[in-house]
Design a protein that fits this description.
It is built from eleven helices and eight strands. The chain is of the alpha+beta class. The longest helix is centred in the C-terminal third of the chain and has 31 residues. The chain starts with a strand and ends with a helix.
């Protein structure tokens, strides 16, 4: 499998992003791909559709993949998240059955064990888009990372326990915040090179990641104004206002409303 590596090439007036194709050294041993951004998906497995209908096992796989990136997860932790209503014996039995199903789906060696207490996903065999997102951010390949973050973590998915829902909401917010920071960093970089079109594009993306963070929304509106896109700034405000009304039943604060009014005038 080849991966696109986005590398900046700077000129005196702008920053042009060139795409170079490099070989992924793990490709021969990673025939399976788990996507957790957006609706969950598993590529490279014939029985994936049937498995994806089993919500708790999908949730367990996602948790095992990213709760402790590239690390070991304690069985006691997992049974507390997924089977809190059962006693220890019953919960561990359900976990064993679920892990057996994961190994049947992904391969016996895809789920590793360490003693009787810990499990991990072998990410040299199973690619995970969230972990690739993290790696791209570490390498400062911000545009490539944002291509991977196509939507919220497990978008539209809900678990069957309060414990899993709490973990999912916190983890969604974590990835959304990292994506927003990456997008805003790109917006500032392109504005610094006078490439206002790309600066505006990434500013809009950053504002849409941040949920109800009005400070970032105002920063994005002002950047769009500087880029000459007043109508785009107003549209961004209106989207944000509608989201606040829908999700929190509140209006934007006075400072944000004044900025929107000045952009309309």
């Amino acid at each position: 499998m080849s991966v696109a590596r986005v590398t900046p090439f700077r000129t005196s007036v702008s920053c042009v992003w060139l795409v170079a194709v490099t070989l992924d050294p793990l490709a021969p041993t990673r025939p399976i791909s788990l996507r957790v951004f957006g609706s969950p998906a598993i590529l490279g497995v014939a029985e994936a559709d049937a498995f994806l209908a089993q919500r708790k096992r999908v949730a367990l796989l996602a948790y095992l993949a990213i709760a402790r990136p590239d690390g070991w997860v304690r069985r006691d932790t997992m049974v507390g998240v997924f089977w809190p209503e059962l006693d220890s014996t019953g919960a561990r039995t359900q976990l064993r059955k679920a892990v057996h199903a994961l190994r049947q789906l992904l391969g016996e060696d895809a789920i590793l064990g360490r003693g009787d207490d810990e499990l991990r996903l072998d990410t040299t065999r199973v690619a995970v888009d969230a972990l690739d997102f993290d790696a791209a951010l570490r390498d400062d390949r911000l545009a490539a990372a944002l291509e991977l973050h196509r939507a919220d973590l497990l978008e539209g998915f809900f678990g069957e326990t309060v414990e899993f829902e709490q973990w999912l909401e916190l983890t969604r917010a974590h990835y959304r915040e990292r994506a927003a920071h990456a997008a805003w960093t790109l917006a500032e970089r392109f504005e610094g090179t006078a490439d206002v079109t790309l600066a505006a594009r990434w500013a809009r993306k950053a504002a849409r990641f941040v949920g109800v963070d009005e400070r970032t929304v105002r920063k994005a509106m002002l950047l769009l104004q500087r880029a000459g896109d007043r109508s785009g700034a107003v549209q961004l405000y209106e989207e944000f206002r509608d989201r606040l009304r829908r999700e929190l039943d509140v209006e934007p604060d006075a400072e944000t409303q004044r900025l929107a009014a000045s952009l309309r005038s």
